[in-house]
Amino acid sequence: MVFLNLREKGAFWANPNNTSKTSGLAHLEKHSHRARMAYYKLNELLDEFEAPKQKLPLPEPEGRVTLESVVVVPPLGETAVLKGVTLKIESGESVGIIGPSAAGKSSIAKTVTGVWKANNGYVRIDGAEIDHYNRDDLEYI
């Protein structure tokens, strides 16, 4: 445990039973080194991902949703949970999807909202692929 006493100049120690100032500084340096190394490792991992591409603004979506031969494998998954799904929903239409557990209902919702990416096929809103929209523009669909 590290204590810092701001009232007394130079009063800094790592253990209340050991008032040696150097042991507290060594302890602080050890932990700050670990934090710095974790920061560098995290930055290295983040550098492996592509920076998001700047997207051109599209017209405000009307809400026509089209799935064309969509195949989806969930993140970290190995098998497709949606295979060849084709669906067209016109603007203003309400659609209910029913089925047993693990039938793909949530997978369709995640794909239509862009949370999961289609491995094959197309997910379009008003004719434009969902990846071309800024996420903020789709918040009400």
The backbone outline, from C-alpha atoms, is: elongated
CATH homologous superfamily title of the largest domain: P-loop containing nucleotide triphosphate hydrolases
In what range is the share of β-strand residues? 15-25%
**Uncertain residue ranges:** 1-14
Number of helices: 2
Mean pLDDT: 79
Reading the helices and strands in chain order gives: EEHEEHEE
What structural category arises from helix and sheet content? Answer: alpha+beta
Q: Per CATH, what is the topology of the largest domain?
A: Rossmann fold
Distance, first to last CA: 51 Å
Give me the Rg, rounded.
26 Å
Taking the sheet with the most strands, its summary is: 4 strands, antiparallel
Total of domains: 2
* Name of the top-level CATH class of the largest domain: Alpha Beta
Number of strands: 6
Q: Which architecture of the largest domain would the CATH scheme give at its second level? A: 3-Layer(aba) Sandwich
Query: How would you write the strand order of the largest sheet?
Result: 4-3-5-6
Q: Roughly what percent helix?
A: 10-25%
